């Protein structure tokens, strides 16, 4: 499967952005999808994920602010980001794993990666 992330940009603190991860292939519904981010000088971290059966996960740092969802008919997973903070600034990546379960989503173990999209939150 090939992944294309989009939707990044520059936003002021408190604003919102919606990232999209579009996938090729007809069996996208059988893939878990995760969103990761990497800020300059920091390690990559999992932000949110959704298993192939629909179970979702959010990291503590984004709970209550970010929501992951999927539209299998459009082969797309979204990350709605609200109440953005300067510390959310990073390159955001989406990734996929065939029949990935909730535990794998939480562990951040994915096999396919898209290119990143830059999110910059100004204070």
SSE topology sketch:
Elements: E1 3-6, E2 9-12, E3 17-23, E4 31-38, E5 45-50, E6 56-58, E7 66-71, E8 76-81, E9 90-98, H1 102-107, E10 112-113, E11 117-122
Parallel strand pairs: 2-11
Antiparallel strand pairs: 1-3, 3-8, 4-5, 4-9, 5-6, 7-8, 9-10, 9-11
Q: What would you say this structure looks like, in words?
A:
The mean pLDDT is 94. A hairpin with a 4-residue loop joins β7 and β8 (76-81). It contains 1 helix and 11 strands. The radius of gyration is 13 Å and the shape is globular. It has one helix spanning 102-107; strands at residues 3-6, 9-12, 17-23, 31-38, 45-50, 56-58, 66-71, 76-81, 90-98, 112-113, 117-122.
Structural descriptors:
123 residues, mainly beta, 1 helix, 11 strands
Can you summarize this structure?
With 123 residues, this protein is mainly beta.
- Main sheet summary: 7 strands, mixed
SS class: mainly beta
Task: Classify the helix fraction into a percent range.
Answer: under 10%
**H/I helix tally:** 1
Low-pLDDT residue spans: none
What pattern of helices and strands is seen along the backbone?
EEEEEEEEEHEE
Q: What is the molecular shape?
A: globular
Q: For the record, give the distance between the C-alpha atoms at the N and C termini, rounded to a whole number.
A: 37 Å
Radius of gyration over C-alpha positions, nearest whole angstrom: 13 Å
Percentage of β-strand residues? over 45%
Provide the residue-averaged pLDDT: 94
């Amino acid at each position: 499967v090939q992944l294309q992330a989009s939707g990044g940009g520059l936003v002021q603190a408190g604003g919102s952005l919606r990232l999209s991860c579009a996938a090729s292939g007809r069996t996208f519904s059988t893939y878990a999808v995760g969103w990761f981010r990497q800020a300059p000088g920091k390690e990559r971290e999992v932000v949110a994920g959704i298993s192939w059966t629909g179970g979702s996960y959010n990291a503590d740092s984004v709970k209550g602010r970010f929501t992951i969802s999927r539209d299998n008919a459009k082969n797309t997973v979204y990350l709605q980001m609200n109440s953005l903070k300067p510390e959310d600034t990073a390159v955001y990546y989406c990734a996929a794993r065939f029949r990935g379960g909730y535990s794998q989503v939480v562990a951040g173990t994915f096999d396919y990666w898209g290119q990143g999209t830059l999110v910059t939150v100004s204070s």
